[in-house]
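Re-run with default settings, no changes from the original entry. Doing this only to confirm the output is reproducible before filing.
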Amino acid sequence: MNTTSNTAVLNPELADDKRQIAQIKEQAASLVRGLSDAQYNWHPGPGQWSMAQCLAHITIGNEVYFPTLEACISEARKKGLTGDGPFRYGWVGNWFVRSMDAPAKMRMKNPARLTPPPEQPLEKGIAGFNAAHDRLLQVIVAANGIDLGRAKFRSPLLKLLKLSLGQGFGVLLSHARRHLWQANEVRKHPDFPKS
């Protein structure tokens, strides 16, 4: 495989990321299928997010990460950091990826930049969610041939945290699963409206 081209077959790790994106999009579609805007925006209580806020938060999080991931890919290409894997990752970044995944094991403070709007029409919310994941797929394809372990960046949200490119993709995928799980908990709530 040509490690400088992103047009070749995706390396196994990125191919798995692509598969996860498809699963995440299908899970979101299934979760909101048949809901009204009122149901989509219903929240269980004060300080608790609606399904709309969960999906918007995922979308905003992806959008915050995109410029950093794209710059990391560009810089890695300039430095000749190429490879097809398997890739090696540091334990701190691996722990962070795992800590973001579903089901949520601990509460995390929401960065102000990722605060979702209080309400959003379902059609707009799911369109934004899908567009963000389509762009994530484009970024993943652009990373093909990069050594995902050696290409590194500082988190755009936690400046002390340095992640590898592969871990950056893992953070976004885990973060999406975490908040889709949270949205599913809202839908399963006993007081969730019938229409």
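The first strand starts at residue 152 and ends at 154. The radius of gyration is 17 Å.
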